[in-house]
User: Fold this.
Amino acid sequence: MSDVMQQRLELLGRAKLEAAGFTDAVIRKAYGRIPDLLVAKKQKVLQYEGRIVLGPEQEDGDVQLRAVELVTRLADHQVNKLEHEVHGDITVNVIGLREEDV
Assistant:
């Protein structure tokens, strides 16, 4: 793919992201939240005889795991499945792309 075509596709993708509300400020804000997610905690809220009782704080493993997955994806440390060596024939069917969107 030529450099001009690559730049055109990058600009088109960026314009679509910004039209959907993903501006640079929103992306910076999202990146800024990642450290908070890595140490996320949860606390149960119960009611006993009409009074609100808070349970002990606990690590929120689900949120922390999702944050770690996000960090590794953003840092490009996840294995790219397309880089694996393949022996034999491969058929790829692309469904859902319109020519004018590419």
The mean pLDDT is 79. Strands lie at 41-42, 45-48, 51-54, 58-59. The CA atoms of residues 29 and 99 lie 34 Å apart. The radius of gyration is 22 Å.
